[in-house]
Amino acid sequence: MSEACEALVSASWFNIASFVVVGVNAVALGLETYPAMVARAGAALDWVEYACLAYFVLELLVRFGAHFTAPAGFFRDRWNVFDLVIVTAPLLPGVRENVTVLRLLRLARLARAFRLFPSLRVIFVGIRRSLPGLGSFLLVTALLLYGYAVLGWMLFGTAYPERYGTVGQAMLTLFLLLSLDGITDTLQAGRRVTGWAVLYYVSYMVAACYLLTNLLVGLVLTALQEAHQDERAAASQGRRPEIADDRQEPSVREQLAQLHTIISDLERRMPDRPEVADTRTTVCSGSCGQPVAGRGTSG
C-alpha cells in the first residue's frame, strides 16, 4: 500500500490533476462574488466546492499513505502540514459556520500550487529567503523617505500644505512618487516655489527610484538564484541516484549472464579433464614399465 501511494504521489499526472482542481476551486470562488451567478448557479457552485474538498481530502490521504510505514515523515514536510490545516479546518464545526474564515481558507488553497510544481516552489522559497534582506531594505527606504520628507516640509510645507504640511503627509507624497507618476507636474510646481526643487527632486529620483529599486531587484534575484541552486541540489540527491540505479541494472544483469555462461562452460569442460588425465596415466603405466625398443637394441 505504501509503495503504491508513493508511486501515485510521484506521478506527474497526479500533480497536474491537483493543480487543475486548485484552479477549478479558485474559479468557483471567484464566481461566487457575482450575485447574478450565485442566484443562477449557486447550487452547482456548492457542489463544485464539495467535489474539490473531497478531492483534497483524498489527496491528503494518499500522501499520508505514502508515509504509512513512517508517519513522522509526513508531518516533517511543512507543505503536508499546511495542506492538513487548510483541508481539515473547513470541516470543524466552529469554522464551518463562519463564512469569512471559510472563504479565507478556500483562498489559501491557491498557495497549494506552489508545492505542486518545482518552478513555483523556487519562487516561493526565493521570496521567503529575501525577507531578511528585505527588512534591511525597508529600513533604508524609511530613513531615506524620512530625510527627504523633512526637507520637503522645509521647502514646500507652506506652499503645498496638503502634500508637505506634515512629515507624514510628505512621506506619503514621496512614497507615491516612487512610481514616477506625475513627477513632471510635481517638479514644475516645485520650481515655482524655489530653485532648489530641481536638485531636490532629481536627487530623490536617483536615490529612491533608481538605486533603491535596483537594490530590491538584486536582493530578490540573489535569493531566487540560491533557491534554484538548492532545488537543483535536492533534485540531484533525490532523483539522480535513482536514474543511475536504473542505468546500472542492465549492466549488472549482463555481467551475471556472462558469469553464468562462463560457469556453464567450465562445468562442461571439467568432466573432460579427468578423462584426459586417466588416459595419460594408462599410457604411462603401459609404456613406462617396458623399455623403449630403440634404446634396448642399442644397449
UniProtKB/TrEMBL annotation:
Sequence ranges of Polar residues compositional bias:
279-288
Question: Transmembrane segments in this chain: where?
Answer: 12-31, 137-156, 163-180, 200-224
GO cellular component terms, A-Z? voltage-gated sodium channel complex
- Principal localisation: membrane
Query: What keywords sit in the KW lines?
Result: Membrane, Transmembrane, Transmembrane helix
What GO terms are given for molecular function? voltage-gated sodium channel activity
**Where in this protein does the record put region Disordered?**
232-252, 270-299
Q: Does the keyword Membrane apply?
A: yes
Task: Spell out the InterPro entries in the cross-references.
Answer: Ion_trans_dom, VGCC_Ca_Na, Volt_channel_dom_sf
Q: Hydrolase among the record's keywords?
A: no
Task: Tell me where in or outside the cell this protein is found.
Answer: Membrane
Tell me what topology the record assigns in the membrane: Multi-pass membrane protein
User: Which residues belong to any copy of the Ion transport domain?
Assistant: 12-231
Q: Which Pfam families match?
A: Ion_trans (PF00520)
Q: What is this protein called?
A: Ion transport domain-containing protein
Question: Which organism is this entry from?
Answer: Polymorphospora rubra
Lineage at the top is: Bacteria, Bacillati, Actinomycetota, Actinomycetes, Micromonosporales
